[in-house]
Amino acid sequence: MDAAMQILRCRLYDPRASPVFASAEENRRKLYDLFRHTICQACNNSALLLGPRGCAPNVGARARFERNPGDFSGSNFDRREDLLFVISPLKLLFCCFRSQVRLNGLLHADDRSALKEIAKQLCVEHELEFSKAASFEENLRFLTVILEQFSLSHKALVLVLDEFDLFAQKPKQSLLYNLLDLLQSPSSQAAVIGISCRLDADQLLEKRVRSRFSQRKILFLPPPSEEITRFLEAVLVIPVDSSANLAQHANAFNAKISAWLQMETTKELVNKLAALDSSPRNIIDSVFRNLLDYLKNTKSTTPKHPPTICALADLSVLELFLLTSMKRLENKERDTYTFNSVFKEYQDGYKSSDSYSKKAAYKAFEHLLERELIGYSDGRAVSTLSHLRPVKMLISFEELEQGLEASPICPATLRQWYSQPGDLSMFSLITFSWNVSAEA
Amino acid sequence: RSVKRDLGFSPVLLRARSRRKSRDGDRKYVSRIEWNDGVFEVGEDVYVRKLESAERDESDEEVEDCRVCGKVGGEVMIECDACLGGFHLGCLEPPLEEVPEGDWICFKCEKKEAVGEEPSRRRHRTARERLLAKELWAARIERLWMEADGSPWFSGRWYLVPEETASGRQPHNGSRELFRTKHVDHNEVESILRHCYVFCPEDFSKASNEGDDVFYCEYEYDMKWHTFKRIVDLVEEVHVDLEGCWFLHITQADHDFEEYDESKASNKKRRSSTPNKTPNKTPKRKVLRRKIFPEDSGKDLTEIEKAKIALSLSTTPGSLPCREKECKEIEAFVTDALKEGLENLGKCLYISGVPGTGKTATVLDVMRRMEKKLSSKEIQPFRFVAMNGLRLTSPEQTYTVLHEALTGQRLSWKRALQLLDERFSNCKSLGGVDSRPCILLVDELDLLVTRSQSVLYNLFDWPCRPNSRLMVIGIANTIDLPERLLPRIASRMGLQRVSFSPYSYIQLQEIISFRLSGTEAFEKPAVEFASRKVAAVSGDARRALELCRRAAELVECRQKSGNLEESNTRLIGMADVEAAVTEMFQAPHVQVAMRMCSKHAKIFLVAMVYEYHRTGMVETTFEQVSRAHSLLCSNNGEQPPDKDVLLSIGCKLGECRLLLCETGSRHRLQKLQLNFPSDDVSFALRECLDLPWIAKYL
C-alpha cells in the first residue's frame, strides 16, 4: 500500500515522474537532440522554452538508467516544476559530462547577483572556494576560465535561466550578452536554456544579444482535451507487480479508478475543467480532490459559490448597503463617486429608523477597500482626503445581486431597494423632457 | 645538455611539438612520479635547474643560514620583510621572545645599510635567492608522463620573476611575487630541483611556516603583448587531468589558429581512443576525468556532422572572407599609426556596423597579422589591450582594467585614472616597454557613455596628446554614435571611421561556402536561399550560420527516424532550409498557442475581437469583454463561466502576452488589449473544431 501511495504521490507532486503527452514527448526529443549536439559535438546552443504556466509538467520523466543507477543519480535534468525534462533512457552516457547551473529571474534580480550565483553554484559543484566579494568582472572571468577547463575535459555546462523575460528586461542585458558571447568562443562547451511564459520573450532581446542567440524556440502547450482522460488514467493507474503479494490490492485499486473514470460526473468534471484551463497541473489539482471524495465516500467539499460571491455573502449589512448605494449611483450614470456621495445616497435613498452613523459607515467602507471589492480609481497610493477620493466598485452587478441572494443576513428591504429604480436625477429628467419635446 | 625554456615562439619549439605528436602513443601519463627521493605530482610547483651541469650540491639548501651567526637551524628564525634575510631570534639585539605580528624589518635595513655585500663569510645561497637572481626557474607541473624509454618527463608552465617581465621590477611588485606565463615546455623530471610553493595572495598572507620557498602569484603575464591579466585564483584548484594528447596542442596553439583548427578537428575523431585511469588523485583537487563515448567509438563523422561543426559559431575560421577591404583599412590605420614612430600623435578609429558583421573578428584578425609582422620585425613592437564595454562593472571600470593590463597593478578607478593621465601626458619619460605604443580596443563602446561622458572623453583625449603613444579603436553598433556625443568627443573620435555594412546575400553565400569547404552536405541553391533570406532581413552572418546549422540538424533528425540508406546520400536542400526559416524566424507560435488554448480562452479572445470591431477601440475593459463573452456563450449554448474564473483566464492569456493587460486586482476595471493584430486571431480560430460556431463572429 505504501508503495502504491508513494508512486501516486510522486506522480502527482513530482512532475518529473508523471507520464507524458504526445506533444511533450516531441519537445523532449528536441531538447534531447539539442543537448546531444552540445555535449557530443561541441556545438554550443541556446534555446528558449516557451509556454503558459503549468503546461508541461510531464515533459520530464525520470530517467531509467539500467546500467549503473548510482553513477547517474544526478542526471535528472529538471527545471522548474512545469518545464522539466530529462534526458531519458539514453544510450549515450553523457550525463556525467555535464554540469548544470540554474537561475531564476525572480530570485537573481540584477546581472551582478546572477553572475555571482552562477559562480557560487559552480563552486559548490566542484568543491571550490567561493569568494563573496568577487565583482562582476571577476566572476565573469572565473566563468570563462572554468568553461575553458570544462571544454578541455569535455564537460558541458548547461545554464538554465528561469523566468527568462525578467533577465531580458534588465536595462543593459549584460548577463545575457556575456553568456551568449561565451558560447561563441571556441574554448567553451555550453548550452543556455531560457524558460519563459511570455511567447514574445525573444523580442525583448537587444539587437546585439539577439544576434548571438541561436534562435531555437520550443513551445510547450496544454494537451488537447481528448488526451486528458488518457492522461489521468496514466497518472492514476498503478503498475501491478505480479510477484508481490499485494497485487490484488493494486488490481482492486485500478478497477476502482477505471470505474471512477467511466462515471458520467467525472467525465463532466473533466470536460468542464478542460474548457476552462487544460493545463495538466490545473487538472491534476482539481481532479485529485474530487477523487479523494469519491474514494472516501464523503460528500463533495468543493465550495458552493465562486470566491467573489462567498466574499459578498460574508459582508455585514451596512457594507451591503454601501455596495448597493454604489450600484444605484452607477445606474444614475454617475461614473465616479466618493465616500461622501455614497453615504449621501444611502441616507437619502434608504430612509428607515435604524440608519447607521457616518463613522460606522466609514469603517465599513474601509473594510470594503481592504477586501478589494471596491478600489480608488485615481491610482494614487496615499491621500489625506480619503472621504473625497473617487472610488469604483470592482465587482459587477450580477455578482452583487448573487451576493445579496447568497447572504444569510441580508434584509428583505435591502433586496427590494436594490431592484427598485433610483430616483431620476435632474439631468436625466431634463434629457427625458427634451427627448419628448423633440419627438413632439 | 640544457633545459629548454623557450619563451618566444621559436622554430625549435615547433619542431619539438611535431616530434611529440608522433610519439604520443608510446607515452604513459601518470599523475605522480617519484624521482630522486622526491615525489612530484601534477599541479605542484617546482624549481627547475637552468643547466643540467649546474653545481648540484653547491646549495641545495632548504634552510637558510642566520645572517648574524652564520649557522643553520637551531632556534626559530625570523625573516626581514625588506631584504628577506633570516635571523635567529636569539641573535638579535635585543633578542626577541617570539615572532612579532605584522612586518618586521631587520636592523641592517633599518640603518639603510647596503644589504647585498657580505663581508667575511661566503654565504650559502638558497634556492629562493637563486631564483630571484634568475639562476633558477620555477614552474608548475601540468602533466607528467613516462616516455617509451622509461624516462620521466613533465610539462611545466613557467613562472617569471618581475625582473624578467618587459617592464622590469616595479615598485608595487612584492619581493616574493612571481608571474605566471601562458607558456608551457616539456622537460625531463631530472631537471627538477625540488618543490617550491606558489600561492595566491590570500593564501600567501596566511602562510606562516612553509619555509623559505614560498611565493605568490597574482597575475598572468602575456609574453606577446606584455600585458598583465589577473588570475582567477579559484581555478587553479580545478585541475584537468587528461590522458588524451590533443589537449596539448590546444593549449599551445592557443593563438595560432590554423593549427588550432586542425587540432580541434582531430580531437573530435580521437575522442574515444584513450583508456580510463587515474590511480590516485590528490584529495583537494577536483579531477575531471574523461569518459568514453560508446556510441562514437570507431565511427567517423558524417558529412552533416562535419558541416554542423564547421557552421557552429564557436568554430574560428582561418580567415574572414568578404571583409578584405575593411581589413585593409584597419591594417593601414594601425601601421600608419605605428610608422609615425615614437613621436606619433596617436589616433582614434571608430568602427560601426550592425551585429554579426564581423567587426571584432576583423580587428582581432588584423592584430594576428600584426603579430606575425612583429615577430618578423617588420614593425616596431607595440602593446595590445582589448576590453568590452559590456563586461565592465561600470564605465569607470575602464580605467582600472586598462591600468591593470599595462602595469599589473590593481587600483581603484580614481587612482588608475590619475596614473593613466600622467602616463599618457608624457610617455617619453617612461622607459622600456612602457614607452612602446599601445593599441586599445574597446568593444561595445556605447556602453561607456555616462552622463558627463567623461570616460569616453578621456579615452579619446589621451591619444590626441603629444607623446601619448596610445591608439584607440572603438567598436559599436550605431553609425552615428560620435554625432550623438558631445562635440568635443565627436571631433576626436569621429575623424577616422570604418563602417561595416550588413552582408549582402552574395557575401553570406561566400562565407557559408567557405566554412563548408571540404564537406558535401549542402546543395548549392540551399545555401543561396538561406543567405538571401538572411540578407533580406538583417545581413547578420551569425544568423545565416545558425540557420544553416539548424537545417542540417533537421535533416539529421529526420535521418535518424527514417530510412538510413536513402538518407545518407541525401544533401541538405531548399526544403530543409525553408523549414528552418519558418521554425526560427517566423512567429507561428502565436497562432499555434491560440489554437491550443482551452475553449473558454478561445471564446475570450473572440470576445476581444468582437468588442474591438464593435467599438473600434483597441483598448477595452474586462467588464465589456466579460459581457461579450457571456453573450457569445449564451447565444451558442455554452455554459458561461464564473467571473472569477474568466478573470483568471484573461490573466493567463496576459501572462503569455497574447493580451496586454493590467493586474487582475483591477477586476472589472482591468484594461485589456490584444497584443497581436485581430486578423491573427481570426486566422487561428477560423477552423476550430470544438467551437464551430465561432467563425461567424470573426
From TrEMBL, chain B:
SMART domains: AAA, BAH, PHD. One of its GO terms (cellular component) is nuclear origin of replication recognition complex. GO terms for biological process: DNA replication initiation; mitotic DNA replication checkpoint signaling. Residues 63-112 form the PHD-type domain. Keywords: ATP-binding, DNA replication, DNA-binding, Magnesium, Metal-binding, Nucleotide-binding, Nucleus, Zinc, Zinc-finger. Component of the origin recognition complex (ORC) that binds origins of replication. DNA-binding is ATP-dependent, however specific DNA sequences that define origins of replication have not been identified so far. ORC is required to assemble the pre-replication complex necessary to initiate DNA replication. Belongs to the ORC1 family. This is Origin recognition complex subunit 1.
